[in-house]
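Narrative of accomplishments. A recurring question from our advisory board has been how the design workflow behaves on a single, concrete structure rather than in aggregate. To address it, we present the structure tokens for one chain from the evaluation set, followed by the sequence designed for it. No filtering or post-editing was applied between the two.
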């Protein structure tokens, strides 16, 4: 008798498998954004100037960006379960080293380990989405990942600020390390790379089901020799890095020093930006999936993002107007999620991990360059003012630094305009 054809997995199981790694991505985003709230604490505890603080925060970005291509290749070769659970364990160790290290050197090591390990989360989420969900839902699912990640960033805003006031920054970061350790155990026990391991039918492309992923060398060559890979690489990084740099480090000091807000109020504003970015992911992904278009909504989003950054730079707004403007910047920046779906569709199905790693490398890579760059610009305009051991920069210094946020967003318009429209279809093999 012929075997009955297997059915696709129930939706709850697909979301659970994918959600374990999405939770890791959420933790990674929390760690990414936390320095903005604890910036003054770090400057006091480790005697840092703006450039050194930018470098300490950017250690996460350096390691994250450097790990993207290896992560993409590893997830194709060893699978999401082994990669994500191991990385989760390393992340927990890095967080605890950063939390309780007594020297700047240990703080650097901790941040580097965290960045290198959480780097696997986003690419692994996309790999799992390709196996557990239909292809025409890929942008929506990855948009939800962006939502969950940014919720982690929001937790690094007001909730972290309140916790730091009550218990101190080291204790709060230590708790996050313990939670990451527990997630590592849950991921190892429950996660499966493909629905077939639980007896269900896979959503993976037939080429992958029949022949598996491309070998490491072939996958990397296939991805890196495609023109659109690089257009989407720069498009995503240039459009998103300004939000990560502002909300992840310099936004809270700027709002407290120039607009004279309390730290908790400033953190609420940067959290508003991250919340909008979070909500934008699934909304923009779903719109793109529904329209059957990639390039058009992505391009519109980057044009709006650039316009809003220019307004932020050139106009000194009342406090109440900052909320909608920062929210608008966050929301329009969320169209970057479409770039990941586009990159997947213009490349070989057997190189899904590799293309995700290459494109995602730019998002944090460009941010890692911009953070210390802005710190150096601020230091060059510093007037010598210090409050409780932390440097205070004036409005002119911030304007000189934030000019580059507008330039970055404007450049993204050009490269996205040159990219290909895929109409939400995988390329023919």
């Amino acid at each position: 008798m012929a075997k009955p054809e297997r059915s696709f997995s129930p939706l709850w199981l697909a979301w659970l498998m994918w959600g374990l790694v999405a939770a890791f991505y959420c933790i990674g985003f929390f760690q990414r954004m936390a320095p903005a709230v604890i910036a003054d604490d770090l400057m006091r505890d480790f005697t840092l100037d703006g450039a050194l603080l930018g470098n300490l925060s950017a250690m996460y970005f350096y390691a994250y960006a450097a790990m993207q291509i290896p992560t993409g290749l590893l997830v194709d070769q060893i699978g999401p379960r082994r990669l994500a659970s191991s990385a989760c364990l390393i992340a927990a160790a890095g967080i605890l080293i950063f939390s309780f290290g007594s020297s700047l050197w240990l703080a650097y090591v901790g941040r580097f380990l965290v960045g290198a390990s959480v780097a696997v989360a986003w690419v692994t989420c996309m790999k799992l989405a390709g196996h557990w969900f239909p292809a025409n839902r890929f942008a929506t699912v990855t948009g939800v990942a962006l939502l969950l990640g940014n919720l982690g960033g929001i937790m690094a805003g007001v909730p972290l600020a309140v916790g730091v006031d009550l218990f101190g920054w080291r204790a709060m970061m230590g708790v996050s390390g313990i939670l990451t350790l527990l997630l590592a155990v849950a991921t190892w026990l429950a996660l499966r790379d493909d629905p077939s391991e639980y007896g269900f039918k896979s959503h993976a492309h037939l080429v992958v089901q029949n022949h598996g992923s491309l070998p490491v060398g072939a996958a990397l060559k296939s991805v890196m020799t495609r023109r659109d890979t690089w257009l989407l690489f720069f498009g995503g990084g240039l459009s998103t890095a300004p939000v990560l740099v502002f909300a992840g480090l310099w936004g809270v000091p700027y709002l407290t020093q120039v607009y004279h807000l309390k730290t908790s109020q400033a953190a609420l504003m940067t959290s508003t930006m991250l919340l909008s970015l979070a909500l934008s992911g699934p909304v923009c992904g779903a719109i793109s999936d529904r329209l059957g278009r990639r390039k058009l909504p992505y391009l519109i989003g980057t044009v709006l993002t650039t316009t809003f950054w220019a307004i932020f730079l050139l106009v000194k707004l009342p406090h109440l107007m900052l909320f909608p403007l920062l929210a608008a910047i966050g929301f329009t920046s969320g169209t970057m999620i479409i770039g990941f779906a586009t990159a997947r569709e213009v490349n070989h199905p057997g190189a899904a991990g590799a293309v995700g790693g290459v494109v995602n490398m730019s998002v944090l890579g460009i941010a890692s360059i911009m953070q210390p760059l802005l710190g150096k610009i601020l230091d060059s305009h510093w007037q010598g003012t210090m409050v409780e051991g932390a440097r205070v920069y004036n409005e002119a210094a911030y304007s000189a630094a934030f000019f580059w946020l507008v330039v970055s967003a404007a450049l993204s318009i050009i490269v996205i305009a040159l990219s290909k429209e895929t109409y939400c279809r995988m390329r023919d093999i």
